[in-house]
Amino acid sequence: MAKAMAFLLLLLLAPAAYAQKTHTVGDSSGWNTKVDYEKWARGQNFSIGDFLVFTYDSSHEVNEVNQTDYQNCNTDEEPIHRYSSSPTNISLSKAETYFICPRSNHCSDQGMKLTVTVSGGSTSPGGSKPSPPGTPETPPRPAGGATGILGDRTSLMVGISVVLGALLGLMG
């Protein structure tokens, strides 16, 4: 009976281990001037909760910016987040996230900019608009209340707890 319980527990918890992925930006090249980040991003499948890992040397930084600052490689405005310590780990929590290197024309002249579009994420009709300054950005909820293949993390944990409680009740 104990082996069956352990196997059932493994089956329940194993999918959660695969729910999040870690994406190393630029793969082995890292966050650098010699990488085509548009091409790199097209080869990825990003999901809410995944992690981006930026690895870079002291000649670079990572700024998370709004869409307008991304498109214009604008480094004059205050970024949403500023990172200067490598490796930088960022959890994806929005349908679209924009990153640039703010150092001496690395974005505008050398292509150090990255758009991350989460699969299944949606934007407003006609494209997304930058949030007004000071407005927190929240991830959009998929239509119909669906929250992806595993569902909302809270629902997943509640479901696991209910199943484990029922199994423990049967054993006792």
What brief labels describe this structure?
172 residues, alpha+beta, Immunoglobulin-like, 2 domains, 3-stranded mixed beta sheet, 7 strands, 16% strand, elongated
CATH architectural label of the largest domain: Sandwich
Main β-sheet description: 4 strands, antiparallel
Mean of residue pLDDT values: 75
Task: Give the radius of gyration.
Answer: 20 Å
Could you name the CATH homologous superfamily of the largest domain?
Answer: Cupredoxins -  blue copper proteins
Number of strands: 7
Q: Provide the β-strand percentage band.
A: 15-25%
SSE layout and pairing:
Layout: H1 2-17, E1 22-24, H2 37-42, E2 51-54, E3 62-65, H3 67-71, E4 81-83, E5 88-91, E6 96-100, E7 113-117, H4 153-171
Parallel strand pairs: 1-2
Antiparallel strand pairs: 2-5, 3-4, 3-6, 6-7
Tell me what the structure shows.
By secondary structure, the protein is α+β, with helices and mostly antiparallel strands. It has 2 domains: 42 residues; 127 residues, Sandwich (Immunoglobulin-like), CATH 2.60.40.420. A 4-stranded antiparallel β-sheet has the order 4-3-6-7. It starts with a helix and ends with a helix.
Care to give the gist of this entry?
By secondary structure, the chain is of the alpha+beta class. Helix content is 27%, strand content 16%. It has helices spanning 2-17, 37-42, 67-71, 153-171, and strands spanning 22-24, 51-54, 62-65, 81-83, 88-91, 96-100, 113-117.
